[in-house]
Design goal:
Blueprint: H1 2-13, H2 17-70, H3 75-100, H4 105-108, H5 110-120, E1 125-129, H6 137-158, E2 163-170, E3 173-180, H7 191-201, E4 206-210, E5 217-224
Parallel strand pairs: 1-2
Antiparallel strand pairs: 2-3, 3-5, 4-5
Helix pairs in contact: 2-3, 2-7, 5-6, 6-7
């Protein structure tokens, strides 16, 4: 009887403060677990990038230097090839480190980091940035990684000719929106996009992917702002 009374009271009066607190603790526990999984997935991806990119180039560089030492008559040509390969290794390492954490995000802010991202992208990016002041890391860090992952995916898979990247304010939300004119069909359940969804959920934000076959693809993250 007491249980029935409690259910009726909850139905008509709404959840008690204790029930609200319990629900919130449960949500935070799930959110924390999702963040840990997103971090682990990012580590696995970095490992793949290092293995498939940087490590393979380092092997090629070592082989070129070895050939140069064994063939003095071709040393000049082989050393020039090695120099070019070393430059590509440096570019790969720089790209990996930017995906881990962009240099300058703390000191220069989100706007500068996104401008650098747009400059490095192989697809033309039109950046519209309307925030007039710096925001805390809980906003700028997930905003950057949403933009970075989306732009990287477009460059690799979408066969797009342009990317529109905007960061705007809508009420109490900072909205990051990425649209491309590629082939569409992006899978929200894929490791990259699902990791972004978990990262955004960890700050009580909302994340959506609209990517019909044939395009366009629109990725949106709404991040709550305290002011």
């Amino acid at each position: 009887m007491e249980s029935l009374d409690r259910r009726l009271a909850s139905h008509f009066l709404g959840p008690t403060a204790q029930e609200v607190l319990r629900r919130r603790v449960s949500e935070l526990t799930v959110s924390r677990a999702e963040v840990v999984e997103a971090i682990n997935e990012e580590r696995r991806r970095i490992e793949r990038d290092l293995h498939d990119g940087v490590q393979q180039r380092m092997v090629a560089l070592g082989m070129l230097l070895g050939r140069a030492s064994r063939r003095p008559d071709q040393a000049a040509e082989l050393l020039e090839q090695a120099r070019e390969e070393a430059g590509r290794v440096l570019l790969d390492l720089r790209e990996v480190t930017w995906r881990v954490y962009p240099v300058g995000l703390d000191s220069d802010g989100l706007h500068a980091a996104l401008e650098s991202l747009a400059e490095r992208c192989g697809v033309p990016v039109r950046l519209r940035y309307e925030l007039t002041e710096r925001h805390p890391g809980t906003i700028e860090i997930p905003a950057y990684f949403v933009a970075s992952e989306a732009v990287t995916n477009v460059s690799k898979h979408a066969r797009a000719t342009r990317i529109d990247l905007s960061v705007t304010r809508a009420g109490t939300m900072v909205v990051v929106r990425i649209e491309d004119d590629g082939v569409g069909g992006a899978d929200p359940a894929g490791s990259g996009l699902s990791g972004l969804a978990r990262r955004v959920a960890a700050v009580d934000g909302a994340f959506t992917v609209d990517s019909p076959r044939g395009g366009p693809t629109v990725i949106t993250a709404e991040l709550p702002c305290a002011w």
